[in-house]
Write a structure and sequence with these properties.
Layout (H helix, E strand, L loop, with lengths): L1 H20 L4 H14 L4
Length: about 45
């Protein structure tokens, strides 16, 4: 469970950094939102 929390926090920092710099990573964001329910155990 700790690794899921760590992954979520790391991704959140990544998304915030992208927003601040005015960039985006649509491919990663799509993958993240598609897989998040599975890795967090909310399936």
């Amino acid at each position: 469970m700790d690794k899921n929390t760590e992954f979520y926090a790391t991704c959140n920092e990544y998304f915030m950094a992208l927003r601040k710099s005015g960039r985006n990573d649509d491919a990663f964001e799509d993958e993240y939102y598609y897989t998040m329910p599975i890795i967090s155990g909310n399936n």
